[in-house]
Amino acid sequence: MATVRSFVTSWTTVLPVIAVVLLVLTWGRELGPVPVTIVALMLAGTVLAAVHHAEVVAHRVGEPFGSLVLAVAVTVIEVALIVTMMASGGEKADTLARDTVFAAVMITTNGIVGLSLLIGARRYGETRFHPEGSGAALATVATLAGLSLVLPTFTTSRPGPEFSGPQLTFAAIASLVLYAMFVLTQTVRHRDFFLPVGADGQAQDEDRHAAPPARRTALVSLVLLLIALVTVVGLAKVESPAIETGVRAAGLPQSFVGVVIALLVLAPETLAAARAARHDRMQISLNLSYGSAIASIGLTIPAIALASVWMPGPLQLGLGPTHIVLLALTVVVSVLTVVPGRATRLQGGVHLVLLAGFLVLAMNP
User: What are the residue boundaries of the Sodium/calcium exchanger membrane region domain, all occurrences included (predicted)?
Assistant: First the structure.
């Protein structure tokens, strides 16, 4: 009874319910500074609650399914934020999807990977993981990014960095196919490649953490996860004008809105990866980072392609020369990190420097 009571009164249970009430009270209204701040805090808290419940479900189903659940949950939030803000027709809405997806790729492949490697290597001297699984994930990320974010810059069917209708359809279908193939590889065909590496270098199928939650607890968390995701969509719609205004007031380029969205939705993912690294489960950290990058492109591009049918304005997906260089550097460095199957603090520092370079150029192009 005490356990049930503590679960019901937990902030992760109460917060999504409060967020629903706040959404009802603020929907369709112009908000002042104080309500905007409250909505922003509630939005961040609901994202954390959503990912907490995703982790509960993930713990119940085990690895590597757990990392997949968490990555998909985060990506659903990201897609919802992008679509709601594009639908509002704000400034630079035609490039919001590109800016957000690219920011997510840089944050996951450099920020989350770099931080995890630094934490793991600092504590254990050297981190170990499966190059087969991580390499396959990295190859998928590179292919998805190349097809969806680089090629539009060089196509000639449209005057700007955008796909024509048939090209966008191909990119959306290819993204879904690659994502489905990766999920099949991760969860069925080569599951061992995505499990933590033990001291003997072999995959560990056992869970070092506490016993998995009961089925009833996992089902309740699944319901709360869905409620939290829906609430995040609504609160993001309420908050989107304030985000764009804040970016303008800070003197930052409007494209930085995409970076803000990516940082918001990936903050809990970063914490989860860091915790895994502290427990010498670097493969889980890489699953989370590369899995989120794959889901970010593989699910966002098809969703945005579908939404573009009824949304006004063009959909510009092509990256500029600076970002293409950053993406190429990231792919090369990531290959050199992943191929040996082990890494030190140096690799973690290199990835974090790449992320810092991206953020500096995002603020001052």
Answer: 39-187, 221-362
